[in-house]
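Researcher: I'd like a structural prediction for the single chain below. Treat it as a standalone chain; there are no partners to consider.
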Amino acid sequence: MSGHRQLRRARLASWSAGRVTALGVLPLAIGMGEPGREIKGPMAVVILGGLLTSMALNLLVLPTLALRYGRFKAEDEFPRLAHV
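Model: Treating it as a single chain, here is the predicted structure.
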């Protein structure tokens, strides 16, 4: 059960950090034609593409692969701890 919570936290952190960074880099990527942005514009496009790719991998592909090929124990197989 804790693995599910940990995966949920990782997905939430990936989604929020990637989204905030992508929104911050988006104005640089959009305004590529303006003077003075010959370096920053293409770099922003590469950063944005990398963020979107990594978010797609973390949020869609990796959980799908984990569910498909992962070996999970049934909840009955976990030892019960006595509450003190």
